[in-house]
Please model this.
Amino acid sequence: MRATLISLLAGVRLYAPLIVLAAATLLVLRAPGGGVGFMAGLVAALALAAHVLVFGAAEARRAFPPIAARALLGMGALAVLAGAAAKQFAYAPQLGEAGLFCITVAALHLMFTVLIGRAPTLRDGDAQ
Model:
């Protein structure tokens, strides 16, 4: 059991930054439109979900506080609104996609910490 936990910890520590890098690459290199920001946000949320599942909800709240997630959610909403309102702005589509990315990551992080925080996690059950 202990070896499995160590493997999970090492795997998340290794792959979470790579998953976030893949999400950033997807957001930057794809042409805006078609929900690229949402897809990149889902990919980045995979890293957050793995972090919450392996390290626990309390550690995830310390790593990415809920107030920061709410601020990111608000900034994402403002970016989407600004991108939709200023169609003549040259970077309006990119602004909208970045806003969708921020909204998706922040909302899913808040959902993960609430849902997983109410159930026992691998880390919490092992620390008796």
